[in-house]
Structure formats: C-alpha cells, structure tokens
Amino acid sequence: MSIISYEEQTKITRAIIKAAVMMLEFGAESKLIDQISQRMGAALGVKSVEMSLIPSAIVLTTLTPNQSVTTTRRAHHKPINMSIVYDIVRLCIELEKKRFGVLLVAKRLKEIKPNYYNRWLIVFMIGLSCASFAYLRGADVAAFFITFLAASTAMGVRQKLAKHRFVSIVIFTVTAFVATMVASLSYVNSISSTPSIALSSSVLLLVPGFPFINSILDAVKGYLSMGWGRWLQATLLTLATSMGIIFAMSLLNIKGW
Amino acid sequence: MSEFIITHILAAFFSAIPAVGFAMVFNVPKHTLKFCAMGGAIAYTSRMILLDLHMPIELATFLASLLIGTIAVHWSRKYIVPRPIYTVASIIPLIPGTYAFSTMISLVDMNSHGVTPELIAIFIGNGLKSLSILGAISFGLALPSLYFIRHNRPII
After folding, report:
1. pLDDT confidence band for A25 (50 / 70 / 90)
2. Are A128 and A204 in contact (CB under 8 A)?
3. How many domains would you assign to chain A?
4. Interval B140-155: pLDDT, tens
5. Which residues, 6 or more positions from A207, have their beta carbon under 8 angstroms from its beta carbon?
C-alpha cells in the first residue's frame, strides 16, 4: 500500500463522510451507509473506515498504516429521497470498477440532483393510492371518491407546508386535520354507507411506515441507537397525525374513528 | 373460480397503485417504478391468498414480505439497484396504518374522557396488532439480507 499524505487522506475522509451524511439525511438504512462508506474507503486506498452512527450525526475515521483522520458531521433530516441513495450506490460501484481519484468523487457527489416528480402527478397518485386503500377495505363508490378528494387535498397541503419548511410534526398535524375535515363529507346526507372507511383511509398518506420499518431493520442488524432514534421519530409523527384527526373529529362532533 | 380470480386481479391492481404513489413520494428512480408496482401487487395478493387459507395475519404478512424481500434481492442483483428502493414501496400496502392511528387515538381518548375497559381493550388490541405486523414485515425483509451478512458480503 502506497503512503497517503495527510492532505490527501483528509480529502478522502471528507468525500466519504459527505456520501454517508447524504445517505443518512435522505433515509437509507444504517447497514447500507456503513457498507458503502467502507467500500468507498477501500476503493480510495485507505486501510479501513470506522464509523459511529447516531440519528443526528456521523463520526467517521479513516485509518492508514501511519495515521488516522477523524471528522464529524451533523445530519439534518430531509424528506426521504431514494434517487439520491441510488446515485451514491451507483457512484460507489463505479468507483470500485474504475478506481478514479478522490477529486472526481467529490465533484460527482456535488453534482447529484434529486429526481423530483411533477407535484400535481404526486397529488393525483396519492389521492388515488388512498382511494385504493379504501377500495381494498370495502368502501362504496361515494367513499372511494371522497377519499380521493380528501387525500389529494391533504397531499397538496402537505407539499405547500413542506415548501415553507415547517417542522414535520406541524405538517403532519395540519395535514391530518385537513384530510379528516374533507373526508367527513361522507357523513353529509348519509351519502356513503361506509363513512368510517373514508375517514380512516384518507389519512393513510401520513403513516410513517418507512421510519418504522427502517428502525426495526437497523435494530435487527445491530444498530440499536439508530433503531431507537427512528422508532421515536416515527412514533412522534404517528402521535402528531392522531392529534390532527382528533382535533378535526371533536370540531365536527364525530364519534368513533 | 372465475370470481376468485377477478377479485384477486382487482386486488392486485388496486394494491399496485399505492405502491407506485408512495414510490413517487420517496422519489425512486423512474425506471424502478414498474418493479415497485409489481412488488406491491405481489406482496398484497400473496398475503390475501395466505389469509384465504385461514392463516393468522402476522404469519401471512411475514411470508408475503419474505417473498417480496427475496424477489427484490434477485432484482437488485440483476439491475444493480440497492434493494431498499424496491422493498420500501412494495410493502406499503401491508403497513398497518389504521391500527397504529387507532392506538394513538385511544390513548388520547383515555386522557380526555377517562379510562374505561373498552378503551384499554382498543389500545392494547390495536397496539399489539400494529407492532406484530410491523415486526413481521421487517423480519420478512431482513431475513434475505441477514443471509448475506453471514458471508459478510454485500448484495450488490
């Protein structure tokens, strides 16, 4: 193994932790973050990469035979974005094959852009998704369309609030409130015979299924603190959503969810 | 028999839609969308068939997510895509969202209207259901990758 200078190793460490922080922020599971960092380290020529993951930060050390470089980064959690995780994994695989230098890795990481879908397409698809859930639970036609209306309105509100950078707990509460308010249309004139299905399906766009699943996967694979952190985050979001539902229901005086 | 097939095809179609919808919220790469749709349909329909065979919902969910986890390993090797991209969207139709919200709502109800045996029953019943289904999904997804951790080599 050739000797790596201190400056060179600092650059390598920075590139690796940049990739790791991006993966943590956009919702990759801990095992993948650990694996990709180690593989990138091996491909860039350091002896080993050791990292400590907690929900809000990463501490990462690269080791070579004669020195070690350690650095820490804060992670600010952002909405889940799988295309960024995909791009980083692809970059890592390409790096292992072609063995290009650290400068190009840093440049490629800077160039990664999220793959956003059209806003209105997402609003429509989420409305349709929640309506499909309602269908799968046996809703009638009126409940199906009211769920569609409620969920797509809620998704529009959620995107609007996310654009103004509200805290996710506030976003979830307000969105659940709006969804329940619109879904309660199914009680008017007994238009639907299954109003409670419309009510419960229209808030399904807010289920934090991803953090829940990730937390158990992390815990099973030995990242216990990450597992707890994600579990708490998901529980908080569920509680926030429930508060929104309850507030709307007590305002409309609906009993029994 | 034909009625059986029509119900299941409809269920497969209506469970593929949420898989695609949520895959878009998670911003998956465009070329993986059709696999997410297929995954959602496979996961939900296989669980539905297992439930028809009078299996408990936890076991049926576990087997369905084990199936989709294994298929996703195959896809991720074939197309060089990290496995979570496929699995995350595919298990969306299985997630016990209503149970989780009912649990939290009963908790708040107990605080504001007083504790009654019915509310405790709702809380514990729904809480256990959502926990056990979530656990079943995660273990089903984790098993195929735990198989590879044993050899200490990555899936792709």
Report:
1. very high
2. no
3. 2
4. 999 988 887 777 677 7
5. A238, A241, B95, B97, B100, B101
Least CB–CB distance from A135: residue in B14, B91, B98: B14
Which of A80, A136, A257 lies at the smallest CB-CB distance from B105?
A257
Q: Which of A90, A111, A132 is the last residue of a domain?
A: A111
User: Contact at 8 Å (CB) between A208 and A238?
Assistant: yes
HEC readout, A66-92: CCEEEEEEECCCCCCCHHHHHHHHHHH
Residue A168 to residue B83: CA distance in whole angstroms: 27
User: pLDDT at position A79, please?
Assistant: 87
CB burial string B110-144: b at 16+ within 10 A, e below: eeeeeeeeebeebbeebbebbbbbbbbbbbbbbeb
Could you say which of B14, B27, B100 has the minimum Cβ distance to residue A136? B14
Give this prediction's pTM.
Answer: 0.90
| A1: CB partners within 8 A, 6+ apart | A45, A47, A64, A65
pLDDT band at A253 (very low <50, low <70, confident <90, very high): confident
The parent domain of residue B24 ranges over: 2-150
Residues A56-60 have a mean pLDDT of 94
The confidence score (pLDDT) of residue A1 equals: 52
What does the pLDDT look like over A235-252, one tens digit per residue? 999 999 999 999 999 999
**Integer Cα distance of A250 and A137 in angstroms:** 25
- Which token pair is A177? 């409130």
Residues A140 and A248 both lie in one domain: yes
What chain B residue is nearest to A135 in terms of C-alpha separation? B14
Place of tokens 């059709």: B34
Instruction: Say whether both A70 and A160 belong to one domain.
Output: no
**Nearest chain B CA: its distance from A101 CA (Å):** 22
SS3 state at B153: coil
